[in-house]
Design goal:
- The structure is a single chain.
- The protein has about 170 residues and is an alpha+beta fold.
- The chain has 2 domains: about 80 residues, Orthogonal Bundle (Arc Repressor Mutant, subunit A), CATH 1.10.10.10; about 90 residues, no CATH class.
- The chain contains 6 helices and 4 strands.
- The strands form 2 sheets. A two-stranded antiparallel ribbon has the order 1-2.
Length: about 170
């Protein structure tokens, strides 16, 4: 078993199609089909139910898909950490804390700072939108900021660039 097999399986399972998975991966459908078949052979069980019109996960395939997603996410995260790609927002916030003469740059203090920034934004917005304006608890997303999905239709992604750092602030209005 190799990581490519896991990746191909994940794409097929999520898209419900070998052809669509191959297209998105920019591979031939035969290559993707063979890789997933080898994976099933190595495991000794069917992960997918195939018909001429659809591809569906088996019960064990659904369990395996969850594990594959976790494994692939861990590996992608490790690669980002090694390249330093996940340090961007943390770097900006650490410098901000140091400018405030704060010596504690722990994860907990960084999250507290994000909360303070959110409260400040909320307070300023209440002036313009009224006292009923509320802001949710901030969430720190530590992954590829290009993959940020907005949770509400009235969401705005605001790019923030500072020196060599960049991040994205997501503001959702309900």
């Amino acid at each position: 078993m190799d990581l490519k097999q896991l990746e191909y399986f994940r794409h097929v399972a999520e898209l419900g199609s070998f052809a669509e998975a191959a297209r998105r991966l920019r591979l031939s459908p035969a290559k993707v089909t063979r890789a997933v078949a080898r994976l099933e052979d190595q495991l000794g069980l069917a992960l997918l139910n195939r018909t001429s019109r659809s591809v569906r996960l088996t019960e064990r395939g659904a369990l395996y898909l969850d594990s594959c997603k976790q494994i692939l996410a861990e590996i992608e995260g490790a690669e980002r950490r090694v390249r330093g790609e996940d340090a961007t927002p943390r770097g900006m916030l650490t410098v901000l804390l140091m400018r405030m003469q704060e010596t504690d740059t722990s994860d907990e203090n960084i999250k507290d700072l994000v909360g303070e920034v959110a409260n400040t934004i909320s307070g300023n917005a209440r002036r313009d939108f009224g006292k009923s304006f509320v802001i949710s608890v901030p969430v720190v997303i530590a992954h590829d900021s290009d993959k940020v999905t907005t949770p509400h239709p009235r969401s705005f992604v605001i790019p923030i660039n500072w020196r060599t750092h960049s991040a994205k602030l997501v503001v959702c209005l309900e």
